[in-house]
Amino acid sequence: MTGTTDTPHSQHLAHLATAGELVAARKLDEAEGEILRALAGLPTDPKALNLLALVRYKLGRLEDAHSTYREIAGATPQDAGARRNLGLLALKLGRLDEALPELEMAVRIAPGDERAWSYLGYTYAKKGKAVEAAEAFRRAGQDALASQLEQSAKVQRSPPPLARVAFARPVALAPPLPAPAREGAEARAEPRVEAPAHAMPAPVVEALGPPQPREVEPIPLLSFVLSRLGQAPAPQPPTGALRLTISDEAHARADAILAGAGELKWEPGFRRAQGRCSTERLGDEERPYFRLTGAGEIWIAGAPGRWLPLRLADDVLYVREDRVLAFEGSLTWEAGTVPNAGLRMLQFRGRGTVALDLRDASIALKVTDGKPTLLAGARLVGWVGRLVPHGERLPGASPFQLACQGEGVVLLDAAAE
Question: How do residues 149-199 score in pLDDT, each as one tens digit?
């Protein structure tokens, strides 16, 4: 009987199959390694490249994902999905002039792609092109958003009042010019007639509709921890709201959600363990969490001066479940409890934003290996680093319920509830 050996093609397929299983289990770093092994044999395989781009996107590495989609588009210029994703990533990176041609090309290649039309509508709206944005949203099936933008455009394009000069002689201003003709999704800059300074029309409403609250920028997790250790300036309390742009998924607590827009699907949020969703709800009856999927935006805020959005960059953060206001789908996350203590915790890994409810001025304590630290359970907020908190039963009377071992920083409330 003759033996058999794996061919490069079979090895390639095996690596991709393993990568798919790892992605399903949300083990994204390991999945990326398997995909790169697959690409070592077939470096231009579209399926492997698309999976690699998706994994890098879910890891929060937007620039890397963008480069991978650029490679796919270079090899297959008529790949509408690659063009759409290139435009989406450029939009998330704030590069509107780069996003626009990619999304316009995507809808030319695939006129029925509603997601591409929706992303194109957001791009037009952010560039102040209300008419083109409304047309794109209409093609995306978002009629309510389109109508709102069309109404806004009518307000802006209405003729300004007559200007008067000396001796009250009226000078008629030319009416607004019509929108230029467009071919398909391509649009040119829309001319506008300037009105007198005292009669300037209202600005074009962006895709979210009415004027938005002041946008809060997340701060790096490391900066936050160092500030709580007294080694860096303390961040200023937020005075606005956090905007989360959703293209895959996100989770948010009901009492933290201010507004939402776009084609979003709202579902109950469930806890996740070992990469799989359980039947146990996130949060409680008074403050349940929602899982949002689709394309759109939500605005998040906590109690004034008592919340903070943090940006993780390949960090690991453990935090009490009841202190989480919202988090992005680009983060890998798991739910669990502190052993022998019953405290419900969430673990976050990777790159993305998580907003925390900080009810009091939190402080940080450094924990070193070989020197366990005792903690009051009610004061625990979370920790970073290789720490292992667990319930501790101490003989006699004691204010402590937890012991913490390992290397890292533990976050505590400065005042009892």
Answer: 777 656 555 444 433 333 333 333 323 323 333 333 333 333 332 323 332
Q: CA 329, CA 356: separation in Å to the nearest integer?
A: 16
Least confident of 94-103, 144-153, 369-378: 144-153
Tokens 């948010």 belong to 252
Structure tokens at 134: 């409304």
Phi, psi of 397 (to 5 degrees): -75, 140
Does residue 413 register a pLDDT over 80? yes
- In order of their start, the domains of the chain are 8-161 (1.25.40.10), 219-359 (3.60.160.10)
* Count of residues making up the chain: 417
- Look-up of token digits 């790169």: 36
**pLDDT at residue 153 in the model:** 59
DSSP string of 32-45, one letter each residue: HHHHHHHHHH-TT-
CA distances from 361 to 189, 220, 310, 351 (A): 50, 18, 15, 25
**Residue 406, Cα to own-chain centre: how many angstroms?**
32
Q: What does the block give as tokens for 54?
A: 């998706």
